[in-house]
Amino acid sequence: MKITSAANPRVKAAAKLRERRGRDEQRRIIIDGVREIARALAAGVELVELYYFPGLATDHEHQHLLKRAGEGRGMLIEVPPHVIEKLAFGQRVEGVVAVAKQPQQSLADLAPPPGSLIAVIEGVEKPGNLGAILRTADAAGVAAVIVAGGGTDLYNPNAIRASLGAIFTVPVCAAPSPAVLDWLRARQYRMLAARVDGASDYAAADYRGPLALILGSEAHGLSDLWRGEDIASVKLPLLGQVDSLNLSATAAAAVLFYEALRQRRET
Amino acid sequence: MKITSAANPRVKAAAKLRERRGRDEQRRIIIDGVREIARALAAGVELVELYYFPGLATDHEHQHLLKRAGEGRGMLIEVPPHVIEKLAFGQRVEGVVAVAKQPQQSLADLAPPPGSLIAVIEGVEKPGNLGAILRTADAAGVAAVIVAGGGTDLYNPNAIRASLGAIFTVPVCAAPSPAVLDWLRARQYRMLAARVDGASDYAAADYRGPLALILGSEAHGLSDLWRGEDIASVKLPLLGQVDSLNLSATAAAAVLFYEALRQRRET
Questions:
Q1: Bridge partners of B184?
Q2: For a designed S-S bond to B57, which of A62, A200, B24, B95 qualifies (C-beta 3.0 to 4.6 A apart)?
Q3: pLDDT tens digits for range B143-176
Q4: Global pTM?
Q5: Cβ B257 vs Cβ B249: under 8 Å
Q6: ipTM attached to this prediction
Q7: Half-sphere exposure of residue B159, counting CA atoms within 13 Å on the CB side?
Q8: Which superfamily is assigned to B9-101 in CATH?
């Protein structure tokens, strides 16, 4: 079908998905960009609508995406540039924006393979940072990412974009921290929490076997819930010449994920 | 002194420093934020003006900064909120914005201690990414960062901000890639270039001794200049389940800098 007006009720409903309130009310998300939509489709995310402007959707990648989306139950909607611009976010306008059902993954559903490396991120401040961490988790083979802490807006457009779609390919869910801790204990994950006051150097730790890496936010670190006899703490060396310039959450996650991968590949 | 109008010529000249053209013409830079300015001062950057709004500069950190700046040759300028807002960038308004002489560091001046680990970043796309890499370099004890490639705008406000001021504490300079390569060869740095098609795994490489880690941009990688018999290439494992989702430059730098630090601390 074709829609030519940005005032069309469908378009207006889709535009509301850029805000959290719209996502919560409609239980849908909005995905911008050909790669991100393709990754969502590949991961089984259910498209509802795919808005496209033909003039920007001429290359092979776009054509392939339109064909695949058309084969599913999603509705292809041809729109003029000003409608795509209304739906797109950020500076990039790729000519395709999708509306999808919000993936529902609860802690109870999360079932990484036995012996996996998983990551817990508590209190992540910016959706873009969460996206960057998910992207690194994907590359490093982290089997699942649990976002701990109340009120996390997992499918914020900035998180989707910064993840380049890894938010759909890495199993991910959000849950309150106490529930996450219970989940980890019940499944007997060994827990390694990264803290600036960690008891030992990260490089001296053993990252093999079933392991949960627990990271806090840059500004607030981890809550005290993550102190306990069954939770080891590690720190990253900080050699900065000036005052306490700690690592960004993104950089800390990259270092820890790849150190874990390095050790796990050696065995 | 006090300035109350945003139309004051000094304020207008300072506001122009947010754009590259203004920085190039005036050979000055603008620094926003109390920590960033403090780090610049500590690193010997020469302040020209410090604009402050007293209502937002009440805490110890601000007072200390104003005192230090007042002791130097920089001029303290009290302004109302709307002038600070005109000068500040981003969402954060901390009540202090400094104008400083642009630090002049050329390749010829750069003299890291013998045996150092240094980093070369070629073609970095976004000032924010450069800032994030500088921040990680500071934490990991990288002795100098050379930004290779034409036209790099080192002191872009976004680079300063994302570095949290590390851009002033880590020795940094920009130069064309061929000049950087000559510089490294003349000083007999061993060179390790990170590439997606690298010859060996990054974790199998030796990072000890005088070493230059060479990183390219996320979109374009490294130019072919960085292929040669005296340049080893390494790659980071990418286990992503979908298509070629490579690491961000920030994440790749973090992994390499900390692997180097890990090995160098062991010896």
A1: none
A2: B95
A3: 999 999 867 789 999 999 999 999 999 999 999 9
A4: 0.92
A5: no
A6: 0.90
A7: 21
A8: Ribosomal protein L30/S12 (3.30.1330.30)
